[in-house]
Amino acid sequence: MNLEQVKKLEAKLLIPTYDRYPVLLHKGNGVYLYDNKGRKYLDLLSGIGVNALGYAHPAITKTIAKQAKLLVHTSNLFYHEYQGLLAAALTKISGMDRAFFTNSGTEAWEGALKLARAYAKSNCVQGAEPAYKILALEHAFHGRTFGAMSTTHKEKYRLPFAPMVPGVEFVRFNDVADLESKFDSTVCAIGFEFVQGEGGIRPVSKEFVQTAHKLARKYNALLIADEIQSGMGRTGKWFAYQHYGIQPDLVTVAKPIAGGLPLGALLASEKVSGCIHPGMHGTTFGGGPLACAVALQLIKIVEKEKLLKHAQKVGGYLQEQLQKLQKKHSGIAEVRGQGLMVGMEMESADLAKEIFQQLLKFGTIVNRTDETVIRFLPPSS
Questions:
Q1: CB distance 272 to 222 below 8 Å
Q2: Could you read off the pLDDT tens digit of each residue along the chain, which spans 381 residues?
Q3: Other CB atoms within 10 A of residue 318 CB
Q4: Quick one: which of 153, 192, 223, 227 is 20 to 30 A from 167 by CA?
Q5: How far apart are CA 130 and CA 60, in angstroms?
Q6: Nearest-CA neighbor of 281 among 293, 289, 273?
Q7: Helices (H), 41-81
Q8: If DSSP codes are grouped into helix, strand and coil, which group holds residue 374?
């Protein structure tokens, strides 16, 4: 089928949730994608941060082929050999204690919100009202299910589906005074991306993080780190919170974790894990043998190929080059980011849209986020 045939078929049959780019992709290799006519594209978006090792990495494709012949799926009513091994690997690199596997990032975030409420109830003095409020940040994006959407800031995501899940309050980005004024004994959790992705590649300040951590400890609330886009090595450390010298209570992971296969994880401290028991939460597809086997292989590749240092080096070079462009072009307002998570903010949404379209025309894939920001999430290998 050609592009026009595919577009026509989708227009007739698919629920219209995507405004797709006019490219019909056929295959990928390394950092390049190829359309159905054989045209080559340099991919600096990697499936919105998913294909961290690029395309057709030989170790990943070998693992997929091998495991697909053995076992693709089994329910979580049974054991398979990879969940425990992957939990061991993830807890080692994160400093967390336990893992729950999910289908996606938004499902992991939903699990984190549920655990926060459950923890507050299990630690509430008998007869008292348990803490219930969840603090999130302006510009935040945590997903499109109801709990995740309720902690996502922009009205364009929320308004068509209102009312949202109650009990969420937004703190102004990097505003310590606003954080302190809104954090009290009614708060059960504060959750945020340490480098906001959809919100425009905005790193949270160290002062804000340290204050949030201190207040969470003061009120026995949970600190939740959304590492769905920034995790698994993209920022030059395994997780973005590791740049800040603090340890969260819950961590959500997804996008790059299984080399392109659907998989997410909720990582928890021991104190939080104690508030949940069999039957309180579950998933059908999360943590299947194929995805977990691939995720284990991905972690080995990142370690073997020293991709954390590589992300720091290449990400630093990318920012330097973009900053040189900024000096030459007044339309570039700011360049910011961490590792291979970089944003170039333009002076207007129209200019950002034009640059994105021109780059695509010349065979380079990026995307536009937060209206004015060109987002770079290139593969790290």
A1: yes
A2: 999 999 999 999 999 999 999 999 999 999 999 999 999 999 999 999 999 999 999 999 999 999 999 999 999 999 999 999 999 999 999 999 999 999 999 999 999 999 999 999 999 888 889 999 999 999 999 999 999 999 999 999 999 999 999 999 999 999 999 999 999 999 999 999 999 999 999 999 999 999 999 999 999 999 999 999 999 999 999 999 999 999 999 999 999 999 999 999 999 999 999 999 999 999 999 999 999 999 999 999 999 999 999 999 999 999 999 999 999 999 999 999 999 999 999 999 999 999 999 999 999 999 999 999 999 999 987
A3: 19
A4: 227
A5: 46
A6: 273
A7: 46-49, 58-68
A8: strand
Q: Six-digit token pair at 40?
A: 């080559």
Nearest to 212 by CA among 186, 185, 183: 183
Residue 107 burial (10 A CB sphere; 0-12, 13-18, 19+): buried
SS3 call for 26: strand
Q: Where are the alpha helices (DSSP H) in 2-54?
A: 3-13, 46-49
CA distance 169 to 183: 10
Residue identified by tokens 């499936």 is 47
User: Letter for the amino acid at 187?
Assistant: V
Q: Which two tokens stand for residue 381?
A: 């290998």
The position carrying tokens 């056929």 is: 26
Residue 55 is given by DSSP the state B
